[in-house]
Specification:
The complex is a heterotrimer of chains A (190), B (48) and C (238). Chain B has 1 helix and no strands. By secondary structure, chain B is mainly alpha-helical. Chain C is mainly α and 238 residues long. Classes of the chains: A alpha+beta (190), B mainly alpha (48), C mainly alpha (238). Chains in contact: A-C, B-C.
């Protein structure tokens, strides 16, 4: 059998394979975005939001309205928390942030505040508190390295309540998961 | 490669194929048995 | 090192098995090993980072059955099959040693086994050696499956070089291989995805393994039949 070098037909076939592969990967990317951004409507105490579809919704504690965790995350499961916290009518967002800092410092291991500042979130004034902590399995027999978790709390003043939206993710996933959280943040109305 | 060498039929190819499959089954069997009896715990790497 | 050993032995056995299929004119061993190494390099350098870090498949692919199948075909299947195709197309394809249609299958299966070796090393390392009993069966099946799926691409590649096929021929080959790959990954997913029940978390290890093995064996059977048909037609032609 004779050997032949790259023919025009080979070249076209090669280009066709590349085009089909790119088309498949693009379709896969759009499908991935569709699945990741799929949501289910949520409403409680006059606050509504679009919660991520397929995430594990845990039983909310105290003033929490929603606690959703992505079980597919590696390390610490990316978590969104929505709270409606009663506060004094005169309380400012920085004061609520100080309260949250105390709360986190008591509940979380190696908790450190990274930054706090006033921000505008989709046209609404808010106060942003970013922090870091360590999440470790309480079972001492588990031989796994604890996860470093980054968190961000967004505090919105709402009369006698403060609406607090929390995003917590493994340090490795924080930036990657941020755009999905922004969709959630944008969907919140009260 | 010249045509003189081309299309020479390999001998004992069926025997070789069966031997290969049997050796794979034996390998799987050995690992399966060792894992069941020793239940080893591995680390990603070992340093001295 | 245990992971490397467990991944290499089944891949080496399947490599020799597929190498023996070229009964007419054996390929140079160095070339076959080179394509095997190229498949492994492309898996470690491009395939696994693309699937795990860019597409982050573990986050979304197990949402539901349709997503597992579609994601498995469009993302995992096409990435893997294109890279295995590239390992042959941009190395040995234009060489004088690629001188019969069957060579496409021989070199593509070598690339597939290189790819599978890296996947299997990653599997053992990420599992920390847990349940190697079922793991070693999975390793042998994944190696066979990866070889067989790229064998499909290799068959189309061999025909494309020597029989001046239509422009859609090669994309069809890659697509078919990606579809088989996606279905295999879905079945294999039954193995790795835990099911949460009231009594705790369980995994249906054997069911998925048996189904995935059936796909791998059926594809291998198809490839061997195609290779032997090629061989017979060559002998008849001579």
């Amino acid at each position: 059998m004779t050997n032949k070098q790259t023919s025009l037909g080979d070249r076209y076939a090669e280009i066709a394979v590349i085009i089909v592969t790119i088309a498949a990967l693009l379709a896969g990317w759009f499908y991935k975005s569709g699945v990741e951004n799929a949501s289910v409507p949520f409403s409680a105490e006059g606050i509504s939001a679009e919660a991520p579809k397929g995430w594990l919704q845990l039983q909310p504690a105290s003033n929490e309205l929603l606690r959703a965790t992505d079980l597919g995350s590696s390390g610490f499961g990316t978590t969104y928390i929505l709270r409606n916290m009663p506060v004094a009518e005169a309380a400012t967002a920085p004061e609520v942030a100080n309260l949250l800092v105390l709360e986190h410092a008591q509940a979380l291991t190696a908790f450190r505040v990274l930054d706090q500042r006033e921000v505008t979130v989709y046209g609404r004034n808010a106060y942003e508190l970013t922090y870091v902590f360590v999440e470790s399995n309480p079972d001492l027999t588990h031989t796994e390295i604890p996860s470093v978790v980054r968190g961000a709390d967004y505090i919105f003043e709402n009369g006698e309540h403060a609406v607090i939206v929390t995003f917590q993710a493994d340090e490795k996933n924080f930036d990657l998961d941020l755009s999905r959280f922004h969709l959630f943040l944008e969907s919140i109305s009260f | 490669m010249s045509d003189a060498n081309a299309l020479h039929e390999r001998k004992h190819v069926w025997r070789d194929e069966i031997l290969l499959i049997v050796s794979l089954i034996v390998f799987v069997g050995i690992v399966y048995t060792l894992d069941g009896t020793l239940q080893p715990a591995f680390t990603s790497s070992t340093f001295y | 090192m245990t992971g490397v050993f467990l991944a290499i032995v089944p891949a080496a056995i399947w490599l020799v098995f597929f190498y023996l299929q070229d009964r007419a004119e054996p390929e140079p061993k160095g070339f076959v090993l080179g394509v095997f190494a190229l498949g492994a390099l492309l898996a470690a350098g491009v395939g696994i980072p693309l699937v795990n870090n860019v597409f982050r498949t573990s986050h979304w692919i197990y949402t539901d059955t349709l997503t597992t199948i579609l994601g498995g075909i469009l993302v995992v299947g096409f990435t893997q099959e294109f890279l295995k195709y590239a390992a042959v197309r941009y190395s040995i394809y234009n060489s004088g040693e690629f001188d019969e249609p069957t060579d496409g299958v021989i070199y593509a299966t070598a690339a597939g086994l290189g790819y599978a070796t890296v996947l299997n090393i990653q599997f053992v390392v990420s599992n920390g050696g847990v349940d190697l009993g079922a793991g070693v069966i999975r390793i042998a099946v994944v190696a066979l499956a990866q070889a067989a799926f790229s064998g499909i691409t290799g068959y189309f590649l061999g025909r494309a070089k020597f029989e001046s096929e239509q422009i859609w021929w090669m994309p069809l080959g890659i697509t078919l291989a990606a579809i088989f790959n996606g279905i295999f990954n879905w079945l294999q997913g039954i193995v790795t995805q835990p099911r949460i029940t009231l009594s705790g978390t369980t995994t249906n290890t054997w069911m998925g393994l048996v189904l995935a093995s059936a796909v791998a064996l059926a594809t291998t059977g198809l490839i061997l039949w195609l290779v032997r048909r090629n061989l017979k037609s060559m002998q008849a032609g001579k």
